[in-house]
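Submission checklist for the structure archive. All mandatory fields must be present; incomplete records are returned to the submitter.

[x] Identifier: Late embryogenesis abundant protein
[x] Organism: Carex littledalei
[x] Residue count: 313
[x] Sequence attached
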Amino acid sequence: MHAKTDSEVTSLAPSSPARAPAYFVQSPSHDGGDHKTATSFHSTPATSPPRHSHSSVGPHSRDSSTRFSAATNKKPRGVSGAHEKVAKGKNDWMKEVEAIEEEGLLDDDEKYRGRNTKRLYCLAFLVGFFVLFTFFALILWGASRSQKPRVVMKSINFQNFIIQAGTDASLVPTDMATLNSTVKFTYRNTGTFFGIHVAATPFELTYNQLTLASGEMKNFYQTRKGQRSVNVLVMGNKVPLYGGGPILTGTSAKSNSIPPVPLTLSFTVRSRAYVLGHLVKPKFTNQVQCSLKLDINKLNKPILLDNKSCQYF
């Protein structure tokens, strides 16, 4: 249907530019619908080049495009090896970094645990030391409490006893008493492992709750298992009697007929032991009260103070 005459070919040949002869091989089409197109194509003379059509692209073109894309996507062997080495080195470096970080974390954890262990050990040591020290201190305190010092009265010696008329500080006339005496006793420290610091309250001689004389004892330190004899001066100078009693008021008139004057001697000895410094310091008290009689006819003669006349508290 599309066959052209010789005159048409002759008229068209000069107007078309000269082209180089094209040599190609066309494979038979596998599609049934393209059979007419293939038949008409063979009938075209060899001098006219075939028109390119998108429908004439066959399996060869598809294979060529597939090979081109594969060749394009395929990387050179040297480049891919370098990339693999870099990636492997990077992975190895990351693994080393992670290992170092893990080691650092482990080291920090071990250091933290070590610090906590040391703190626990220190705390346990302090608690144990405090408990043991307290237990030891309690043992010392209990042992020292059972070793109370002893006070034993020996005697009292009256040097003089005078009652005379006089006036007090406000010029009120009254009888005045003057008395001088010396009290002697023995102090013994029964402690086997500690010394004692000893002090005492004033020594007082009283008559019907009227203090006629008093004296102070000097403080001293007594070593363990030691004892000493202590002398204390108990004196009273012009003490107002204010009608202290018929016995005392009658002495100024008839001194030879004065009966013995009942007196009371009282004092308290206070002791403190420093067993473990100032932490364990037990205290002891010895209270003494003696009843005696002052006989004017027996001045300057010691009066014994035994257990019958003295009481210890």
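[x] Structure attached
Curator remark: The longest helix spans residues 77-145. The helical segments are 6-12, 35-42, 59-73, 77-145, 246-249.
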